[in-house]
Design brief:
- By secondary structure, the protein is mainly beta.
- The chain has one domain.
- The protein has 1 helix and 4 strands.
């Protein structure tokens, strides 16, 4: 009988950040702007670099996560590139 387990799937993601002002002190905090998925690491890295140069973006990450299709679990991100102002890695 063949094994019905599927192989893990890797997702490459570009995630951008914007600054959101809050409160009377107008203290800025980072908020996720966009999340765009790509089929290759280089495409995600190139998009993160381009997005970081855009007017509303303060930072961008390119990272990969591995999904186990059998359990639906997604592993911790592995960062490929980080540009501009981005959250601390332990914030994930």
């Amino acid at each position: 009988m063949p094994d019905s387990k599927e192989t893990p799937k890797t997702h490459y993601i570009c995630q951008t950040y914007i600054e959101k002002k809050s409160g009377n002190a107008q203290q800025a905090s980072l908020q996720i702007g966009k999340q765009i998925q790509y089929s290759t690491a280089s495409a995600a890295e190139e998009r993160a670099e381009r997005e970081c140069r855009s007017e509303n973006c303060v930072g961008a990450d390119a990272y990969m996560v591995v999904e186990d299709p059998n359990s639906g679990e997604v592993g911790l991100p592995t960062f490929l590139a980080r540009h501009g102002t981005v959250p601390e890695i332990d914030a994930f």
